[in-house]
Amino acid sequence: xxxxxxNPIDGDGEHRLYRQIVDEAFDLRVRLGRDGRVLxxxxxxxxxxxxxxxxxxxxxxxxxxxxxxxxxVDGGLERLQRRGGSVSLELRIRDAHGHWRRFxxxxxxxxxxAGETLLVGRELRGRRAAAPDRLRDLSPRxxxxxxxxxxxxxxxxxxxxxxxxxxxxHLAVFVVDLDRFALVNDELGRGVGxxxxxxxxxxxxxxxxxxxxxxxxxxxxxxAFAWVREGVDEALMLAHDVRGAISAPVTVxxxxxxxxxxxxxxxxxxxxxxxxxxxxxxxxxMHQAKRGEGDCHAFFGALSGRKFGRLSxxxxxxxxxxxxxxxxFYQPLIGVEDHRLIGCEALVRWRHPEHGLLMPxxxxxxxxxxxxxxSIGAWVLRTACEQVTAWRRAGLGDLRLAVNVSARQLREExxxxxxxxxxxxxxxxxRALTLEITESVAVRLAEQDTSSLRGLRNAGVDLAIxxxxxxxxxxxxxxxLPVNQVKIDKAFVQGSISNVIDAAIVxxxxxxxxxxxxxxxxxxxxxxxxxxxxxxxxCHEVQGYLYAPPLSSxxxxxxxxxxx
Length: 564
What we know:
alpha/beta; five-stranded antiparallel sheet; 21 helices; 21 strands; disordered N terminus
């Protein structure tokens, strides 16, 4: 029989001397579970941070780590669990007095095969600890936005690339250029243009906070980098977030000013390993996006083919279903109060034979225009319903399913019949299904005949307004629609921590929706701070990267099994 492995932190007997050496050598000593929560922290190590062991036990390590270090720490620990070996990290930890203290840490597997991690480290005191922040504080800043100017940003990027090389991490470089911004200065004056730039800088800072760094380029250009554990898909999601944030109106002197942006993206290491190569590549990709009449994004180098002509997309989409090129991913839906897995939202991806995995924003608009959305939508609905039925039969719980439907689908006379038929074929109760429509579609529906939707609602199907708050609808529209859920747009959720207006909007939506007896779902919950705010505001359910990204069917099944 193999002897049980001992833990270096809590061993005794012959390990006493080893413990003494570890205790004297390291200021930081914690043992983490597979889920990243603190399983063990010696009293003296906790005391150095001003905590008692009970205040740390059971808490996720991320609750103590600086937001700007969280992605690196999560990536390092994930890599350690997946590959074994060891990982070195430099991170800031908040002590009980709210001060950030910098540690040089070293992680190893605590017990082989158990998924637990032993993290030990020494505090970087004095000049060495202060240097990185001092360099950042003293780096040249743009007088208007307060962002690092281009030379300072390039220094930050140089340091990030060195870290990426050392830790085998993925990095995305972004160049964001506001489309036709000269018209704002010419027609409304430079003062208005400056106000717009300051507002847009604030929005972009919120997107890249905790993920990387944002800087000011020339004129109406911003530059940024972000750590992207999911590679190209995560970079693409960030590009979508950037364009969404930019497109929301800016109010200056009572006037609403609308902007769009062209975004260029270069990835480390696939597009290059040096600052100049990556920045030049992102600039080239941005100009490629701008040639497409703006308000779009493009990748550089090997991924530049992700920007396609509409005819090419349409031709491929007509055979995508029959060729088995579509895939569904499922993002978990979590209950706010009990953290219980409630269900998932089905999200379609296109595994293009030449260009790889395409996100919905890259093909669904064309699909809507050409009518292929009808066959794609029917495939998504049936595949997702049958998958949820299979999970239920496998004992993963009474999971609910949310599926997005388009305006084109809703205009079909037999749409309600299709939904009823799919539920029957999949042997899925109507009460397990939620159909999500966007806010702009909801506005148009409020002025049309909604008898088919009312029939589905009477049959038990839930109806939800997606991305609520970003468009032109108000809660008054909901009186004319048979909806029973609203999903708050993630831009407001993510801005609620740092922007009092966003926080007020979120609270207002939740309060009014609850008074109308509507369930409220918050999208884009990515931090513990987001979750705490949403919980305090009275939201019912949440989605976001704090819990899980969109998962393949296999990974979602594992997630659901672990959540039981």
